[in-house]
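Anyone able to model this chain together with manganese (II) ion?
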Amino acid sequence: MVTSLPVLAKSLLCPPGNGVFTIHTAQERKNELHQRLFKTSAPAEVEKAWLKSLTALDGKLPILLGLASDCGGGIQRGANWGPLFLRLELIEAQRTFGTQFFDAGDVRVIPHLLHDRYVSKETLSSCRKALYGSARKILPVSPLSMAEAFLDALYHRHPHAKVFGLGGDHSVSYAFTKSFFKKQKKLKRKTGILHFDAHTDLLDHRLGIDICFGSWAYHARQWCASPSALVQVGIRSSGKSQEHWERTLKVKQFWSKEVREEGAAKIAQKIITHYKKIGIEDLYLSFDIDALDSRFAGATGTPEPAGLFPHEAAVIIGEVARHFQIAGADLTEVAPFVKSSEVISLEPTTTLLYAKLIANLILEKMSASWP
Ligand SMILES: [Mn+2]
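re: yes, here you go
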């Protein structure tokens, strides 16, 4: 028997904003979010209202899925708070711009786990007991594995659903893209990735760990229509040269410097020409907030100067989305409690402002109907 989506969601997910397991921390923000979404902040009422809302999930609007995991990060964590803070921004955007989306909630997160492939039998049993009340429940226990299980079921039911994932550190894109590419393959759609980032995330492993914030793109490129269907924009902090990555892994890169020198519109045209040449039909858009210059996005795990200006990213997304369907997307590495040393007073709010604008733009493009 196929489990219904709301029933599966009840096991794997929790109400929007609840992905970080806390008793008191940020409770006022959770209350605010739940008041706005469900007109109540009483936990039992919120749970009831959220479960009821899931029965209306029909895959027509872009679907938000929060994955409040930063276990795959490793320099400065804090992106686990992304989904809660971004939700409040998106509700604001909804009011200002009329952007439409369906909020499925957050994946339940055990913050010490990343993916079930790293989990021992004993831990699997004890975490199943903790999450599902029984060690015999054959369900995943790690955030990335749970996200993948939910998305597999969602895409099985609604193959054309467009999911906008809210991270989390960038390892969450491993789970989002894995499910996404499985179903794109079934739909026989030739699909690429448009990846905004200061870093390439192209390591095959980091300290022996094959799934993390520095390696998800290495794996995801193998699921694309071809390796060169992974196009990276905004790169500027890499141990290896552009020539190295393009030659050895066949990916296509536009470093931040090139965008500044040639202008965003011209880069967008180059990207469009490239995707057309290799026959791409659909795109997955992954946006690491550190693609933006650290003056605009300092509240993130690895802020980098000399990055993209928000309008440059917006021009590229806008142009490319006129030619290719944005069939799936995510926004990662927004770490609202993180302050880097420059412009301390401004950073969290500045980062959230630009994250909101980028997220809103992506949702708007995902909402566009496609022939
Ligand atoms: Mn990244």
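The CA atoms of residues 57 and 102 lie 7 Å apart.
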